Amino acid sequence: MNLQAETLRKIDEVIPHYPVKRSAALPLLHLVQEDQGFISNEAIEWIADRLEIQPINVYELVTFYPMFRQKPIGRRHIKVCRTLSCAIMGGYRTCAEFQKQFGTGLGEVSPDGEVTVEFVECLASCGTAPVVMIDDHLHEKVDAARARELSDKIKGEAKTANR
Amino acid sequence: MPAPEQFRLIFKHIDEPGYTNDLACYVRNGGYEVLKKSVARKPEELVDEVKKSGLRGRGGAGFPCGVKWTLLDRKSGKPIYLVVNADESEPGTFKDRYIIHNDPHQLIEGIMITCFANKVERAYIYIRGEFPEGARILEKAIAEARAANFCGPNILGTGYGCEIYVHRGAGAYICGEETGLIESIEGKRPYPRIKPPYFPAVLGLYQCPTIVNNVETLCHVKHIADRGGEAYSKIGTPNNTGTRILCVSGHVQRPGYYEFEVGKITMGQLLFEVCGGPLPGRTFKAVIPGGSSAKVLKFGERYKGKRKSGAEMVEYDWGLEDIPMDFDSLAMIGSMGGSGGVIVMDDSVSMVEALANINAFYSHESCGQCTPCREGSLWMKKITSRMVHGEARTEDGALLKSVADQIAGRTICAFGEACAWPTQSFIAKFGDEFKAYPEAKKAPRAAAAPELV
Ligand SMILES: Cc1cc2nc3c(=O)[nH]c(=O)nc-3n(C[C@H](O)[C@H](O)[C@H](O)COP(=O)(O)O)c2cc1C
Ligand code: SF4
Ligand code: FES
Q: What global pTM score does this model have?
């Protein structure tokens, strides 16, 4: 496993937060996923080894908790809220607009590798529906027009990054 | 009657221009003074204040907070843990997010008073995975508080020490259920535990006595320690004390968060006055009063019966608009105050499609341990989604009800009820719309009708 020094430092820091090492499984999965983009089989074994538990005990978390993934995604992660308050305020249209902008299906990597668009359940910001999370950042009242603006911004940032 | 003024206790500084989430700003506004006062008192006195206050949990069940604390097994000799429920995952609820983002030190002060009162030396804040910024804000706030000696070892020179750690979830709703949450901190799948014997107060985190409280509940503890339990209990109404943050979403002119004395505002005042009524050209159709699992209420419905008023029983005959927004009144009319999430739907919404949306949520989130919940939530989703996207039949409503009726009361955790109540109440109140759906579907879709599933 080729983890960054900073990730390793955070791993060492978080394990003693718990009286039982196994408790650090979720924090380690988050840290490794942030570092590597997804959770590989190698990562599962590495975490198990680090916490002195069986790989199955890590694997069963990866397959249960929706935020962990076993495959890479696009460079940016667009998560559109699907739940009732957002849906009645037009969340499905917002999601369709993102898919159209990047020519991609739900849960796939877009052809340009730039984004993965997904539906997620309630993001606890129902009062400013429809809401969308792009990577770690929440965007509120994202109707189709706003989804186009955000898409253009992502495309613009991709161009600058590639130069 | 005009709506009362908001009573901003917990949300006093939310939206205040120039108010920031750092320690300096909190202290400038009188922050941590209550903690200083509290650590000079006997812990038992603080527990007593909370008992006297009548505070009821703001996470969903409305269980009296002081009673919960007295159930703790203090004789086991094991450490006692506090787990802060910051999972905020019940659809329609969005209050804890604002506390965490905009006033994290208020929460930390509440946590520390609670820990001191209950002799807790380690607390975990379980924050949902979808709040990465919230987790960073909390970690920064804890570090600031620790540096200023408000948490960590030897707090304020008292010799008492307590650490707070942030633990992030990873996108599973069931982690909000207190025993599932505990399993999740232990590094496992969040499978809820069976009660008895696994009451957190006795066999909680690491099989030690554990308090699980919601973020908003713990903020109230700070204000109770400040004002005294007796004085706090005068806010609100009897048995429904204090203030409550109501999160309004959906089809109103002004959705958002509003804090009122519990029971002093009615549903009608909230939706028509405070939230500005329906969108132009629309009419209200239905409202879910306490997070998406609460039973739906129908506009035009009347509720009749007898209720306690002081020592006497009095008759009540309420329209939906007359219902006071408190735990007891909402329970009395067959729904619940739950998490305070009020979801409003107008006449553009098809109740069949709204239920299909809700059912998709619950079937996605069932942890799968109990057959009635795992299979029942899946079938309710399959049936409603077939009604919308495939063939709909007049008898589908009855079929849905028969599935829902077999879940509640037969499961390990209250998710069983949470997933059955929407279907049961939608069919009970909008049964005709379900029967008419096969015909209604043939008509061209109204332009305003949102896609829901
Ligand atoms: C399925 C399910 C989901 C829940 N989700 C939450 C939640 O997201 N946040 C919360 O505070 N309580 C939630 N609860 C309630 C908790 O189990 C627990 O009662 C609460 O955290 C206790 O805190 P309180 O007494 O301060 O309300 C949930 C309960 C169930 C059954
Ligand atoms: S009721 Fe549902 S969520 Fe709760 S333990 Fe059983 S299967 Fe899991
Ligand atoms: S329903 Fe979308 S944030 Fe709650």
A: 0.97
